[in-house]
Specification:
Blueprint lengths: L8 E5 L6 E6 L4 E5 L3 E4 L3 E7 L2 H6 L5 E7 L4 E5 L7 E13 L4 E5 L2 E7 L2 H7 L4 E14 L4 E13 L3 E5 L2 E7 L2 H7 L4 E14 L3 H8 L12
Antiparallel strand pairs: 1-2, 2-7, 3-6, 3-9, 4-7, 5-6, 8-11, 8-13, 9-11, 10-11, 12-15, 13-15, 14-15
């Protein structure tokens, strides 16, 4: 795995708050992009929509459809905007595998296979996350996004991450879902469930999570007033 090696010439603008991906597609090459993420593109780029992954992909939080952008009659440029306001990360996989949380996948080369991986009833249900992870494996470029900034952590041994902050992790790590300090702490401390990772590899975490923001905004939601009489 190499962050500096690239299959496609690309850059990421507006990091880390509202990251925006620019990719140059050589003539005859194709880029796979998550549905609804294309912001703009050159006129010589042709888009095809494919049904991908079936019901498992839907349960992982991803769209059932994925778009493929091919450059015809010359090189073309495409701009990609993820749905979540946050950061973007690029890695070049070399026969590697990364597992992403649902909706984190943004784009990849055509030699990267994406599939939904069942993470088990206990891990999925009790973590509060999807029952499925997105398994990305093969050789080529991979881009994924977060809510907030992305921090890459090297793990060698044990490491603990709150489930709401996990963006992805490498194949060399195993994990289990636990509470921080027992179930009393779970309900009274304000802390959630955590993943205890074991092994050697990398974990990507995000600097914010959606649920606290939703809880903060909830009291300010519009409420329909009913006439008492």
């Amino acid at each position: 795995m190499d962050k500096n090696k690239k299959e496609f010439e690309s850059r990421i603008d507006c990091k880390p708050d509202f990251a925006f991906l620019n990719v140059r597609i050589p003539q005859g090459k194709t880029l796979r992009v998550e549905a609804s993420a294309m912001a703009s593109m050159d006129t010589n780029i042709v888009m095809k929509t494919k049904f991908k992954g079936g019901f498992k992909r839907f349960l992982s939080g991803e769209s059932l459809f994925i778009n493929e952008f091919s450059a015809e009659s010359g090189e073309g440029e495409i701009n990609i905007a993820p749905g979540s306001p946050g950061d973007l990360e690029h890695v070049f996989l070399e026969n590697d595998t990364i597992y992403l949380q649902g909706s984190a996948f943004v784009a990849s080369g055509m030699d990267i296979e994406t599939d939904a991986k069942w993470q088990g009833f206990k891990k999925g249900f009790f973590s509060g996350q999807s029952m499925f992870l997105i398994k990305c494996s093969g050789t080529g470029d991979l881009w994924f996004n977060s809510y907030g900034g992305i921090i890459e952590i090297d793990v060698n041994g044990d490491y603990i991450v709150d489930t709401g902050f996990i963006v992805g992790f490498t194949d060399g790590l195993t994990y289990d879902v636990k509470s921080v300090g027992g179930y009393k702490s779970l309900f009274l401390s304000g802390e959630g469930l955590v993943c205890r990772f074991q092994g050697t590899g990398k974990v990507w975490i995000q600097t914010r999570q959606i649920q606290p923001l939703a809880s903060f905004l909830y009291p300010y939601r519009p409420v329909e007033r009913r006439n008492s009489g």
